[in-house]
Write a structure and sequence with these properties.
alpha/beta, Rossmann fold, 7-stranded mixed sheet, 7 strands, binds guanosine-5'-diphosphate
């Protein structure tokens, strides 16, 4: 089983030349800080602390690479993507790196765009989706923290998100609703990734 093997942090990449060879299928995770991305990656691989690395100072503007031995999957965490709060030259370098990565990485199969389940897509989430559409990179929206809102609020966030992805050329039409805390939706996310690898 894909996520039975332990994933490890391999490296943080600040330029394209740092990236590992394109020798396996990649999925990437994007989402503003505090959306619950580290928690989701940890829940996905069934490890407690793996993705905390991405939130440590200095690693928020890197492409952080996670791999498991002999696994045909590589996980790429893009912590600051679309949401960088840093000095301008740093943001420009990061934006350039992301652009090069998204447009030049043949092994990148899908970007999971994390959206806060408490309120649905915000401006920055929309910017990220615009860029992915422009780069023609396949992506899927994932709602996080679904245990937090009331049922009514959650349904409204789901409806808003579905409305935001409708008619977007590179967006997967389905939404995955998750709670890393409760484990909700994690099997669905794993199944979606396994499906990617099988096709
Ligand atoms: P990141 O900055 O996107 O990597 O976010 P983190 O994974 O570090 O999570 C940010 C905060 O949200 C932390 O306090 C987490 O405990 C909390 N959090 C993350 N996922 C969930 C969830 O599914 N449910 C709840 N209730 N809280 C969550």
């Amino acid at each position: 089983m894909l996520f039975a093997r332990p994933f490890v942090f391999v490296k943080g990449c600040v330029r394209i030349a740092d990236l590992p060879p394109m020798d396996r299928t990649e999925i990437a995770f994007a989402g503003r800080s505090n959306v619950g991305k580290s928690s989701l990656i940890n829940a996905l691989v069934g490890m407690k602390d793996l993705a905390r690395t991405s939130n440590t100072p200095g690693r928020t503007q890197e492409l952080n690479i996670f791999e498991a031995a002999d696994a045909e999957l590589r996980i790429v965490d893009m912590p600051g993507y679309g949401f960088a709060q840093a000095p301008k030259p740093k943001v420009e370098a990061w934006t350039r790196l992301i652009h090069q990565y998204l447009t030049g990485r043949a092994t990148l199969r899908r970007v999971y765009v994390l959206i806060d389940g408490r309120h649905g897509p915000r401006g920055n989430d929309v910017s990220v989706m615009n860029e992915l559409d422009k780069a023609a990179v396949s992506y899927q929206a994932v709602l996080t923290k679904a245990d937090k809102p009331s049922e009514k609020e959650l349904q409204s966030a789901i409806a808003d998100t579905l409305r935001a992805i409708a008619k977007r050329p590179a967006a997967h039409p389905d939404l995955i609703v998750t709670s890393s805390e409760k484990g909700t939706g994690i099997p669905d996310l794993r199944a979606a990734i396994a499906h990617l690898l099988a096709h």
